[in-house]
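Hi all, a correction to my earlier message: I attached the wrong file for Large ribosomal subunit protein uL13. Here's the right sequence:
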Amino acid sequence: MSKRINTTKRPTKIELPEKWLLVDAAGQALGRLASKVAKVLVGKNAATYDPAVVSATKVVVINAAKIKLTGKKLAQKVYYRHSTHMGGLKTTPLAKLMVNQSDEVIRRAVSRMLPKNSLRKIRLDNLKVYADEQHRHIAQQPTKIEL
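and the right structure:
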């Protein structure tokens, strides 16, 4: 007689209803906000957490331009990327990115806090970041939360 092996049940699409959450970034520290948003995108705040399943929770972050940066980050932090060619290193200072694309600062911080696997891009698609209070997701009626 074979012994039955108990396995954990994976949540289905019905058990993972789509939720929209609204986060106001004004006055919040960048790293603390990004880590909490990443935790929600991964689904660790839900009882049905499964690392192999993408949660259906969408996060809308507003007021990205009013984020708080501690220490000397605004003057010293630099983002790097490389084209893999000789002399192909490109640098972008955080101060310049905050002026031109303040939403990209939050997106990069959250991206780097997500697990480095094939689900990262799918989870990042569930993140919507806007520099001011106006956003396009009024119809989804996002629930405002404090992180």
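Sorry for the mix-up. The mean pLDDT is 93.
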